[in-house]
Amino acid sequence: MSQNDHAGTTAVRRPEVVRLTDVSKRFTVRKDSSLKERVITLGRPGRQYRQDFWALSDVSLDVRAGDTIGLIGHNGSGKSTLLKVIGGIIQPTSGSVRQRGRIAALLELGAGFHPDLTGRENVYLNASVLGLTKEETTASFDAILEFSGVGDFIDTQVKFYSSGMYVRLAFAIAVHTDPDVLLVDEVLAVGDEQFQQKCLDKIKEFQKQGRTIVIVSHALDQISALCDRVVLMNRGRMAYDGLPDAAIERFRELLSENGVGKARPEQITRAAAVERVEVLDAAGRPCSELHEGEAFRVRVHLGVERPLDRWALGVSIDTAAGGMALASNTDVLGITLEPLTAPRHVDMIIDGARFNPGSYYVNANIAGVSEPTSHSLMQAA
Fold it and tell me: Which H or E run contains 377?
């Protein structure tokens, strides 16, 4: 229950627009990457081909008319999955979800757009999905076009659009479909500063109109300024639900609790795990402070419980506020790692990165584990 419900005995209780009760969502992660591998290893004893990953676990949440709620947490904590469940984009494995009113969801770049259709055609397609008739869309079309700033490109296939044009058009459609509930997932970070300000102004206009907004963002200053309530997600569960400043403080406590060299045993896979992460300077010496543009390496120490023939390693660097500053993995880099048969370490060299002054968390993950399993703290100067 939101803290606003206790404002006073004479306050009007605002109606619920969304209620989640004991919601859990399970995804199945396959460990064999091709049909050939499945056939070859079929029936081989001792091998598990699937692993369950619970993106959400027993989440109960009520959203009332007029709320502006922020969802924050680590990458992989369940924020986006929760937003998709609220919007009805995905169905929970267990639990119940009840909604009322028109919901407009701006979840990810280009979601709902058909690349071979023009911007104009996608406006009508998206608007129809959100419940508008053709006549209603036509009446709003000029306002959508003006807000998006796409201009003459409206009759160009959207596969030729830049990421900024995608976001501008998608946001323009979402806010002009007269939604009762607006769901926004981090996509505002893609647009330019002028468009971001236009979006923020539109969100504030919605707030004055008493509409309900749920925002996922790593920009904690934005969350603090816009939201009257914040939900902190941690490993698929709600870690906090309440006032923004308290939620943000609790999030920073979680970051510090997983500080230098602390592994999370509950994230260890049956095959292998990240045990420790070190930051080394160019000469290979451990360091905790770096200068702008200075080359360094991230050394990831791995433990092994059983051999892995095929595996991948990822590294990300997050700001103290939880935003991602840099990320990559061996798949993206086109690196094939040799079989992992014994404990070892792997170095990833980072050269030319320019971080703003401040504290950063260096994270690593292995073999498809989506949430960081170990952290190291780095200072940029």
Answer: strand 374-380
Strand partners, 69: 214, 229
- Written as one letter, the residue type at 74 is H
Give domain 3-254's CATH superfamily. Answer: P-loop containing nucleotide triphosphate hydrolases (3.40.50.300)
Dig out the tokens for 236 from the structure: 């698929």
Looking at the DSSP bridge assignments, the partners of residue 100 are: none
Q: How far is C-alpha 206 from the chain's CA centre? A: 23
pLDDT higher than 80, residue 144:
yes
| Angle of the 119-129 helix axis to the 163-175 helix axis, nearest 10 | 40
Q: Tell me if the domain spanning 265-380 has CATH number 2.70.50.60.
A: yes
- In this predicted structure, what is the pLDDT of residue 68? 94
Tell whether the torsion through CA atoms of 127, 133, 138 and 142 is positive or negative: negative
CA distances from 291 to 231, 260, 328 (A): 35, 19, 21
Token reading at 234:
């941690």
Which run of H or of E encompasses 83?
helix 79-86
Residue 69 has pLDDT above 90, yes or no: yes
| Amino acid at the residue 277 | V
pLDDT single digits (tens) 193-204: 777 788 888 888
Q: Is the pLDDT of residue 182 over 50?
A: yes
Please give the distance of CA 22 from its chain centroid, rounded to a whole number. Answer: 21
Report the helix count and the strand count for the chain, using DSSP H and E.
Answer: 8, 17
Give the whole-angstrom CA distance, residue 167 versus residue 188.
7
3-state secondary structure of 48: coil
Domain edges within the chain: 3-254, 265-380
Structure token digits, residue 39: 């056939």
Q: For 256-315, write each residue's pLDDT tens digit.
A: 665 444 444 434 334 677 888 889 988 888 888 888 778 899 999 988 877 877 788 888
